[in-house]
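Consortium newsletter contribution from the modelling node. Members have asked for a concrete example of what our holo predictions look like. Here is one, prepared for the zinc ion complex that several groups have been discussing at recent meetings.
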Amino acid sequence: MKITGRHYITEETVSIHIENDIIDSIETSNEKSDHWIAPALMDIQINGFGGYNFNGVEVSPEAVKEIVRLQWSYGIASICPTVTTNSHENIINSLKCINQACSDKQIANSIAGIHMEGPYISKEDGPRGAHPLEHVRDPDWDEFCKFQEAADGGICIFSLAPEKKGAVSFVEKLADSGVIPGIAHTNATGEEIDAIVKAGARLSTHLGNGSHALIPRHPNYIWEQLANDDLMASFISDGHHLPPSVVKCMFRCKELERTILVSDAVSYAGMPSGRYEGKTRSVEVSENGRVSLADTPYLAGAGLGLTSCVSNFSKFTDASLADAIHAASGNPARLLDRNTGSLEAGKQADLMLFKIENGEPEIQQTIVAGDIVYQL
Ligand SMILES: [Zn+2]
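And here is the predicted structure:
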């Protein structure tokens, strides 16, 4: 298969030859094209989309597949379904459903691994975010082994709070087993953050969110993570979780190669705007993708997909669209040691073709492992 379009970095028209699932060669072309080609995006933190959920009682293998398929229309080739704090049984059920969905090869190609966020996080209001208090607990290696078994070895990122009892030895074991430890929903001191990084933590998960409304100006756990060059950081640049000025400052701090964009999307993401009556709470989805608890100023999760976060990030910072795409493709691929995320011969052919409409990328085609999975 051959696809032609303008290279997202060089802006030259190129023809990309794909042999099976791999980019075989890239050549400069004289053809004119108004399509752009870039590596497809990768979202390492997503809880649900389009009314479907990876968590709770709603999860099923079919729901997992639907979420993956919906991502394809946004130029997203791969995701890390994110399983959050819950009872042992519910977590095991989510992991099994995700694993079962992977019996479909095309779905498996789009699941880069599972991100577990919790249940070993801070109990405090603020850092805990929306994670249910009754299921927050201390790190337990035996329990993790059961999680990993249910996921058939598929857990690739595990985010936790460094100050939890036993967190350092737990993170050492995680790192030894090949899982990437991340920091999230924490109230840690600088010493605790240093210790967890020495133990193997490599990622600050959605830095700046899952924190107290008020913290000491310094020192605090946000500065400590920003200043630590051994930590990559993921950001939710949906325009609601972090003000544009904060995204810009944090990006300047982490620089491009340590910046990862994530959606952290919840099941309401991608749904029409309006009010949704849940069993325990009502949620309002606004036109601009804000998902809030009805009649309150509080967010109920993230409502924009990764592609919108990429264009927002470029607007909020001085990053080009190409750099924003890199932060949502090349950087997560490097963190996960995945052979995707750049336009080079020998890389897996996970690609997106897009036009720019009103300053936003409009996805024309998404290719995963050499297969066209979405065509406008
Ligand atoms: Zn979170």
